[in-house]
Design brief:
The complex is a heterodimer. By secondary structure, chain A is α/β, with parallel strands linked by helices. In chain A, the strands form five sheets. In chain A, strands 6, 9, 10, 11, 12, 13, 16, 20, 25 and 26 form a ten-stranded parallel β-sheet that branches. In chain A, a hairpin with a 7-residue loop joins strand 14 and strand 15. In chain A, helix 6 packs across helix 8. The longest helix of chain A has 16 residues. In chain A, 62% of the residues are buried. In chain B, 34% of the residues lie in helices and 21% in strands. In chain B, a hairpin with a 2-residue loop joins strand 4 and strand 5. The chains are: A alpha/beta, B alpha/beta. At the A-B interface, helix 1, helix 2, strand 7, strand 8 and helix 4 of A face helix 3, helix 4, strand 8, helix 5 and helix 11 of B.
């Protein structure tokens, strides 16, 4: 089956195309070299239309126990916002906490062809994968949460050599079918279980005396040396606390030159200045990221409206409970390896803090110079539902629109941000980088986020419009593995996407130690903790292993 | 090499340390597990109108019966996660109502989370950490025989040196006999809510008369306040149905108050027959933990209207798809045309279509969720079996619906 996409204006930054007119050829689900004179089975005339690789969401809470708890608590939106079944799609409900099928449909309808769950608790890995098996149309994968797990803290406290920590991390990634490693409030979730309400980056944690800095050092190095493509994905300590910029900058330093990805950086870019003791520190973080080429970030932009925050960071979520709207919240301690906290939020433009959070996120987007190192996220659903991405893209691409929005927020927040003085507007090429090419590269996804020969034919086609929100909200065509799955908002097919994992090499001798720990302390046996390939296949998951290349620092 | 361990799906603990040797399961002294693994396959024949049929013919007849219904009910739901995913898909396609049979107590607990949230923890966290535990309403070991072994006596607790202080509040006849329980505050059912309420009030610093806030209640409130990590475990079914909302609300208030200064979590008992697998799969596929109608092409939840037992009793549904593998429970007596997906040890029924299915964890592999919802465990086949799984049977019915559509 040969499909020709003729005459489109192609934005494919990984292959150096920045709006050139090109004919693209799809053969058997993959991009192929154009052969002059070859006959296509199907031809799309894309003259005048913008063609990009399918978009990739690097950080979106789409599955796992906490997402289900969010659905449970957000009953109002599951009552008010429903999606009907069709001959080829399932029914569902929700906006900030959409059901699994609706999650896949909405992503595809925006031109997204992959989304990654960033906070898979080790003990919840099986449940999270089963749930992701019901997220159709997009590729998916999950980052494994480490850094509050008892065995890692114990290894660090016992002075384990880095090699053994690498083996442990490698074993865990294999056992849970994960794509990367995330750490959330390193050490802090564990400390909260001991009734600590704060953990500074150099504070000795309870029980083991391990500091967040030690966890960051051990994990960032392990991820690098195992050759896992995606750098350690870090949710810093002290999320949401005024003045936390110092912790965020210290986190960069703690990694000691090893690659680091700072996630939902907006929530970690706060100063403690001004009358209200809350200020923007986006410029300081952007300056640090501009200088440190081994650091990337995703923004976690907030947008005004109702959402629900779902986070493993029980310490932060307990602190934030006072701001819950509706007034309910839930905290759960999990299996000596993690936790989760749910707090519904309604971000308001007339609230000083919310308004400044909005501005801080946009400052980060606009002040980080290299679009390859900043990724478009709302930390779905924590800053806003992912369905708000077209609006966010317009804010980035359209300075006058942005400034109009700025005039509508809390006046003191307007005074407290430099946003109005920033003239930068993202270009279509930069949007293609930050939402497609760069996420594929930072995650090590082979053949994604680009349209060169051999790449997966995951493609979004848009009709250009001055109103970029309208343009990105409704792609004309979306292709997944060469099959047209969406046309003008209508779903034509709902195939299952792949699940991306890594399978790093490690010394299997570590398993004896892990097994002893499980036998002595854990509530499941190691053999049942570990996921088998056959059970994942039975659940309908198709695994794609991304290459790991073990490294040592030069 | 030690004998391989397997997981047991016959209560909400889903213990996974049972030994399998030479095809025999050692249930670690648990009568419930032993009985579960001793279940037989006495009837393996599928039947349509009382006559033996192939799986395909039975699935075709089931599809025809269900398609002809104005409002079919899908219930039972004692199924593994794959079975549940397939049954919800079927309910969505049919435009039926789906609700787990006997879910009233579970939904009372979930309603609290929906309305107010909570403070909770998983089994492994409680076993390693809790130094004070309060059991409210019933002996957990009745429904979960190894409760004390699994949640109170782990092999080596990580974060506490001594055994926890365990207190029971409830009626004498329901008191646990396990020696780990060191304190009993015995009150009749009519005083249970008052006593829990008094405990919460004292812990919140409110003035409560000594008649209800007895010395024992005050002492327990002090223990919880002084605990490093308290755990309050309740059986919502011990409270009369009209009092359940109040009970859960008071318990959460207690947890919130204690958490201001120390740590304390709540754990509702339950989770039999993969009840959490059912609520979780319904949540992720439809947005609600049960009592869902797909009749209007979209999921709609109503805790009263879509109660399976009420719908059937009131004659508001005109077909029943009953699915039960973890338990050999036959469909309820009804005049409504019925398709029954039944374990092979369930007695013969009068269902128009009877499809015999395997038991996950005995006849075929699968997944079950623990009562703490976070941990899902793999189940493996422990004997050869040709019986289809609920997932396979539901998929066969769905395929016949698609052909006819």
């Amino acid at each position: 089956m040969i499909t020709e996409l003729a005459g489109g204006t192609v934005f494919d930054p990984a292959n150096g195309l920045a709006g050139e007119t090109r004919d693209l050829v799809i053969a058997d689900g993959q991009m192929a070299a154009a052969t002059p004179g070859a006959r296509a089975d199907r031809r799309y005339d894309l003259r005048g239309l913008v063609v990009m690789p399918g978009a990739i969401d690097i950080h979106s809470h789409i599955a796992g126990g906490k997402v289900n708890l969010a659905r449970l608590m957000m009953s109002e939106e599951h009552r008010d916002s429903v999606t009907a079944r069709s001959a080829i799609t399932r029914s569902g409900s929700g906006v900030a906490s959409p059901t699994s099928f609706v999650t896949g449909y909405r992503y595809a309808q925006l031109g997204y062809t992959a989304a990654f769950e960033p906070a898979m608790v080790p003990s919840n890995a099986r449940g999270a994968h089963l749930e992701m098996a019901d997220v159709p149309m997009v590729d998916k994968g999950a980052y494994l949460m480490l850094g509050n797990d008892e065995l890692l803290l114990r290894l660090i406290a016992g002075g384990a050599e880095q090699e053994r920590i690498n083996d442990y991390v490698g074993w865990m990634l294999n056992a849970t079918a994960a794509l990367g490693v995330k750490t959330v409030n390193p050490g802090g979730i564990s400390a909260f279980k001991f009734n600590a309400r704060d953990l500074a980056i150099d504070a000795a944690g309870p029980q083991h005396g391990v500091s967040p800095r030690q966890v960051l050092q051990a994990l960032s190095r392990a991820v690098f040396e195992l050759g896992v493509p995606h750098p350690l994905h870090v949710h810093c300590n002290q999320l949401g606390v005024p003045g936390n910029i110092e912790t965020t900058l210290a986190t960069i330093a703690a990694a000691d030159g090893f690659p680091l990805h700072l996630t939902h950086a907006q929530f970690h870019s706060y100063g403690g200045e001004g009358d209200r003791r809350f200020s923007s520190a986006a410029a300081r973080l952007a300056e640090a990221v501009n200088r440190n080429k081994h650091v990337t970030l995703d923004v976690g932009q907030i947008l005004f409206g109702q959402t629900v925050t779902a986070s493993a960071d029980t310490m932060a979520q307990y602190r934030n409970r006072a701001f819950a709207k509706p007034d309910k919240w839930l905290i759960m301690d999990i299996e000596c390896d993690g936790g989760c906290g749910l707090v519904p939020f309604r971000y308001r433009d007339h609230n000083f803090v919310n308004a400044l959070q909005w501005a801080i996120g946009l400052e980060l987007f606009l002040l980080v110079e290299d679009p390859w190192r900043v990724f478009l996220t709302t930390d779905h659903p924590n800053g806003a539902p992912f369905t708000a991405y077209p609006h966010l893209i317009r804010l980035l691409m359209d300075k006058s629109f942005r400034n109009d929005c700025l005039k509508a927020i809390h006046p003191a927040a307007q005074q407290a941000t430099v946003l109005g003085s920033i003239s930068r507007e993202y270009t279509l090429t930069e949007i293609a980088i930050t939402t497609r090419a760069a996420p594929a590269r930072i995650l090590g996804l082979a053949g994604r986020g680009q349209l060169g020969p051999g790449a997966a034919a995951d493609i979004a086609v848009y009709e250009p419009a001055a109103d970029r929100e309208r343009m990105f909200a409704a792609p004309r065509h979306v292709f997944k593995n060469g099959v047209e799955i969406v046309r003008d908002g209508a779903i034509l097919a709902a195939p299952a996407g792949a699940t991306h994992v890594v399978r790093p090499e490690f010394d299997a001798a570590i398993e004896g130690e892990i097994r002893r720990f499980f036998d002595d302390h854990m509530s499941v046996r190691l053999d049942h903790f570990r996921l088998s390939e056959s059970e994942l296949a039975d659940a309908g998951l198709r695994l794609v292993a991304e290459a790991c290349r073990p490294r040592s620092r030069a | 090499m030690a004998a391989p361990s397997i997981a047991c799906p016959f209560c909400g603990l889903v213990c996974d340390d049972l030994a399998l040797a030479d095809g025999r399961v050692d249930a670690q002294g648990c009568a419930k597990g032993a009985a579960g693994f001793a279940r037989t396959s006495s009837i393996v024949e599928h039947r349509v109108s009382g006559r033996a049929a192939s799986l395909d013919a039975a699935a075709a007849a089931a599809a025809a019966l269900l398609r002809a219904a104005r409002l079919p009910l899908i219930s039972g739901l004692a199924a593994d996660v794959a079975g549940l995913r397939a049954l919800i898909a079927l309910a969505d396609r049919l435009g039926g109502v789906i609700d787990r049979w006997g879910s009233a107590a579970q939904l009372a607990n979930l309603a609290l989370l929906q309305r107010e949230g909570g403070m909770t923890a998983t089994f492994g966290e409680i076993a390693n950490r809790a130094d004070v535990m309060v059991l409210i309403g019933s002996d957990p070991a009745v429904a979960q025989p190894r409760f004390f072994d699994r949640l109170v006596r782990p092999r080596r607790a990580l974060y506490r040196a001594a055994a926890p202080h365990i207190a029971f509040i409830g009626r004498d006849a329901a008191a646990p006999s396990d020696p780990a329980v060191s304190e009993r505050i015995l009150v009749g059912d009519d005083r249970l809510l008052d006593t829990v309420s008094a405990l919460a009030a004292v812990a919140s610093g409110q003035k409560v008369g000594p008649e209800i806030a007895t010395a024992a209640v005050r002492g327990l409130a002090d223990r919880l306040a002084a605990a490093r990590y308290g755990a309050i475990v309740w059986d919502i079914a011990a409270f009369a149905a009209p009092l359940r909302d109040a009970a859960t609300s008071i318990l959460l208030h207690l947890l919130r108050r204690l958490t201001r200064k120390t740590r304390c979590i709540g754990l509702p008992l339950g989770g039999e027959n993969d009840a959490q697998g059912a609520s979780q799969a319904m949540l992720w596929q439809a947005g609600w933990p049960g009592r869902i109608s797909f009749a209007e092409s979209t999921p709609r939840h109503d805790p009263w209207l879509y109660d399976a037992e009420r719908l059937l009793a009131a004659g508001e549904v005109d077909a029943l798809l009953w699915a039960s593998a973890f338990s050999p429970t036959p469909p309820p007596t009804t005049s409504v045309p019925t398709v029954a997906l039944l374990a092979a040890d369930a007695p013969p029924t009068t269902a128009a279509v009877e499809i015999r299915v395997g038991i996950p964890g005995i006849d075929h592999a699968g997944t079950a969720m623990r009562a703490d919802t976070v941990v899902a465990l793999p189940l493996q086949a422990t004997r050869p079996s040709a019986l289809p799984s609920i997932a396979a049977a539901a998929a066969a019915i769905l395929a016949h619906l698609a052909v006819a559509a």
